[in-house]
Amino acid sequence: MMEKTQISWIQLFLLLSGFHIGSTVLLSPSAGAGRDAWLAMILGGAGGTLLMWSYAVLSMLNPSKTLVEILRDRLGKIAGTILSFLYVWYFIHLASLVFRDFGEFLCTTTYLETPMVVVIGLFAVVLLYTVNSGIEVLGRLSELLVPVIPVAISIISFSLFTINDFTAVLPILENGLMPVLKGAFGAITFPYGETVAFLMLFPHLNRKDKLKKTVVISAVLSTLLGLLVFFRDLFVIGGDLIGRSTFIPHLTSLLIPEFNVEPLLDINLLIGGGIKISVCVYAAAKALCQITGVQDYRGFTRAVLTFAVVLAIWAYDSVLELFAWTQKVYGFYVIPFQVLIPLLLLLLSLIRKGKPQGEVPDKEGNNNAEAVNA
């Protein structure tokens, strides 16, 4: 059963923007390309925008249906249910990765003596209340909090304007094109492809005609904001450190004389990471609700969040192991969830749309006038 809640296109835009920023405010998926990462970000942004647009088209071809309902309708109940469970796993795993990024950063830079499980656990309690409050509340919170992120980024950027080295971008393509292509692939899967979770939220949009426009604008602006952050960091610390540092914006912020901007980074992570985790938890809980036939998704949120927290702590022994896995495995691991299955559903939906309405073939291949359920 679909919740009788709606969000505006502005709220969806801000949720998407906060989701994109999420972990990318600290971790650049294109950092492996070094000083050429800006090229990778442009290519990845173009590919990611196209991928997100395909999600929007898929949702519009299946109005008022979530990802779970589309899977069952297009692939059958059995196959659709199996794939729905796999998506539940992916959403929980994605939430756990953001939890771990959040915990690693805060315990490395700010709360040095605090166990990571305490930091992540307290954050999870706050997010449990947020998710249980409903998607409308999450949308209103995005209106209040997400605009803080570009303001904080602008403050840090202008504070560093006087110590920039604008020649750091040269030479272009020093290491060839391959690192740029790898960086672009990483940018598509993180964060643009991760917005597949919004297929569980798109039906709540009150203006369906605004969906494609909202998705495209959010992707373009997120790309531009990412480029701003990258060029700021590149001009301040140089291409060599860009490719070797872990939390690049944190390193950049330390160079601001007589001005502590670390709280601004913490705020960005709390807002962006909180929205990203909340969306993933909501998507997983809502999917479980529809799979099992339970009316209220809130019955699953506590279990989903607990599982995500445990997975965040248990799955990786160190931050180096986490980053090694995300750089070498994550991009291939998510291809079925982000690309193959959604594009298959899109193709099947387009085929269904092309069939004459009100006619279905009988057993002998002739058409009859039985109504077709869209």
UniProtKB/TrEMBL annotation:
<feature type="transmembrane region" description="Helical">
    <location>
        <begin position="111"/>
        <end position="132"/>
    </location>
</feature>
<feature type="transmembrane region" description="Helical">
    <location>
        <begin position="267"/>
        <end position="288"/>
    </location>
</feature>
<feature type="transmembrane region" description="Helical">
    <location>
        <begin position="37"/>
        <end position="58"/>
    </location>
</feature>
<protein>
    <submittedName>
        <fullName>Spore germination protein KB</fullName>
    </submittedName>
</protein>
<comment type="similarity">
    <text>Belongs to the amino acid-polyamine-organocation (APC) superfamily. Spore germination protein (SGP) (TC 2.A.3.9) family.</text>
</comment>
<keyword id="KW-0812">Transmembrane</keyword>
<feature type="transmembrane region" description="Helical">
    <location>
        <begin position="12"/>
        <end position="31"/>
    </location>
</feature>
<feature type="transmembrane region" description="Helical">
    <location>
        <begin position="144"/>
        <end position="163"/>
    </location>
</feature>
<feature type="transmembrane region" description="Helical">
    <location>
        <begin position="214"/>
        <end position="231"/>
    </location>
</feature>
<keyword id="KW-0472">Membrane</keyword>
<feature type="transmembrane region" description="Helical">
    <location>
        <begin position="329"/>
        <end position="351"/>
    </location>
</feature>
<feature type="transmembrane region" description="Helical">
    <location>
        <begin position="78"/>
        <end position="99"/>
    </location>
</feature>
<dbReference type="GO" id="GO:0016020">
    <property type="term" value="C:membrane"/>
</dbReference>
<dbReference type="InterPro" id="IPR004761">
    <property type="entry name" value="Spore_GerAB"/>
</dbReference>
<keyword id="KW-1133">Transmembrane helix</keyword>
<dbReference type="GO" id="GO:0009847">
    <property type="term" value="P:spore germination"/>
</dbReference>
<dbReference type="Pfam" id="PF03845">
    <property type="entry name" value="Spore_permease"/>
</dbReference>
<keyword id="KW-0813">Transport</keyword>
<feature type="transmembrane region" description="Helical">
    <location>
        <begin position="300"/>
        <end position="317"/>
    </location>
</feature>
<feature type="transmembrane region" description="Helical">
    <location>
        <begin position="183"/>
        <end position="202"/>
    </location>
</feature>
<keyword id="KW-0309">Germination</keyword>
